[in-house]
Amino acid sequence: MSVQWNEMIVADARALRASEIRDLLKVAERPEIISFAGGVPDPKLFPLATFNDVYGDLTGDEQAGRRSLQYSISEGLPGLRQWIADDLAATGAVRDIDNILITCGAQQGLDMLARLLLEPGREIVLEKPSYLGAMQAFSMRRPSYVGIAMDDDGPVIAELDAAFAKGARIAYLSPDFQNPTGRSYSLDRRLAVLETARKYGAVILEDAAYCKLAYEGESLPSLLALDDAHGDPDAGTVIQLGTFSKTLAPALRIGWITAPRPVIRQLVLMKQAGDLHVSTINQEIALRAASKLFPSHLETLQGAYRAKRDVMLSALADFMPEGVSWSRPQGGMFVWLTLPENINSRELLIDAMEDAKVAFVPGQAFFCDQSGINTARLSFATESNERIRDGIERLALLIRRKDNQ
Fold first, then answer.
1. Which residue from 21, 189, 278, 359 could staple onto 154, CB 3.0 to 4.6 Å apart?
2. Domain Aminotransferase class I/classII large spans what residues (predicted)?
């Protein structure tokens, strides 16, 4: 008798669904496609010379090199955690290394927090739209999603309050240059979010993946910093996820969770049971590269991505027909497109790839309730300025034709 694999695989694993974003990354490799699909950094901006130096320095030092190839502690290298703690302190967040766990990218952080906090039927509040990768991490625990609407200042507080009043006690939020919309919260809305969470004793999972990629406007404190200013960080409301993937290099797979000590202690046990620790040599390289590169490399990234964003916004204004609107992000990598209601962005993508040779991510994938059928995410990060403008013009012509059918 053969193994009945569908019966062997547990319900948590069967809850997973394929990522449209990961599938579309394959499309971006075709040179004829102008891709606004992948939410990845521009590889032309990777600081290769610095990485060459830090790898050489590390492996050239026999004692440090051998240590970097050995097992390490599950919490993460103390020097790297101290660097992160110092960087957080510069933003007003009062944490020490015992509040920090190094993870294999922020995505592992999402997975670990899902396993720590979620279970079948437990409610978690999400922005509409929200980061697809977070929903994938959460879905394996089979929670109940409570979607709340967003306006230009952030989540609608009345809806957040109602969700907490009905029993939800966890919210996943992205206050800075959100993936997928590029939107950010105002200061008043950040304070209102925290006040509402404290009112109900709720936990906020703050995704800070793009917070360093600010191109204009006032720099606002994170929810973590505002929470720390309120009292004891070990009794705080906010758990923050950070990463070097958008500022150093994704392949390092270095992220972190900043949380109260009781949370970190439990996560360390999970880390030990899962993969023991993040690659020692990658942690060492990240520490050395960040120490050498920041803040000057951040300024390079900000200048390059600002220019790409400006080209995309200009092209949208020049070419898009009436009835199409878009976000105007002050940072991050994304512009959010809202199409006329009669246009299905999934169907539009098929024609865009075949006829216009342009790729994007249909917006419906980012909604926990599968709404947003006429929305799309555009990334300006990886294409050249010329191809951005060309791609937007092609896409606009296709939208105009679809809208008139």
1. 189
2. 63-395
